[in-house]
Structures are given as structure tokens and as C-alpha cells.
């Protein structure tokens, strides 16, 4: 039977059903703690909301929340958060010819080498994506 959770909704624990017991009853999971799943308690993990649609072909849409990990090492082909001359970019990172390159998803920009002296650096690697609208 459903019980009122006090938040306007109902909780279901899988008990007190009529008819045959569901074989999926053993698979009922308790509440999901997104902070735990996304490891947000770590001091170097940050949620970042996406504003543009430059990475739509990677499945990243405006309004999505990226979980940026500032302690993760860069990895070829991953999405990263980069600082480019004071601007924040969400782009792909690639390793070619012995150095890291930022590859903006939109064809409007050429790949850009990651050079700290030129005020271009990878700030974090994206570890997860949270979509709040489906």
C-alpha cells in the first residue's frame, strides 16, 4: 500500500500487493541519492549548467547539468570545461602531435592547442551528465 511521504507524493516499498508476488520484487531499489551516485561530496566535483547547444551531437543539450571533475586527468575524446582567454568553453579534448587540443563541437572554430602561457587551460573533465527535462 502506498504511504504519504509528506511531500505530496507517495512511496512504494513493494509490500502488500494483491494476487501473485512480483518476481521483480527483489529488484526494488530504495531512494537514489544523486549526491552519492555522482560523488558530489568530493571537493573537486562541480555541477555546471549547459547554456548553449554546441555539443548537441554528443547528446549534451541546453539546460543539462554536467558534473565537472577538476582532479580528473584529461582523456582523448572526453568532454571538458576549459578556460580560453577568460571565457568558459565546453568542448572535446584531443591528444595529437604530442599535445592536448580543444575541439569545439561547432565547425565555426578550429581546434585550439592547450597552452597555459596563452591563457588556455583545461579546468575540468566532465564525469557525468544530468538531464532534468526529457
UniProtKB/TrEMBL annotation:
Residues 1-12 have a biased composition (Gly residues). Residues 18-126 form the Peptidase S24/S26A/S26B/S26C domain. Residues 1-25 are annotated as: Disordered. This is S24 family peptidase. It comes from the Bacteria. Pfam families: Peptidase_S24.
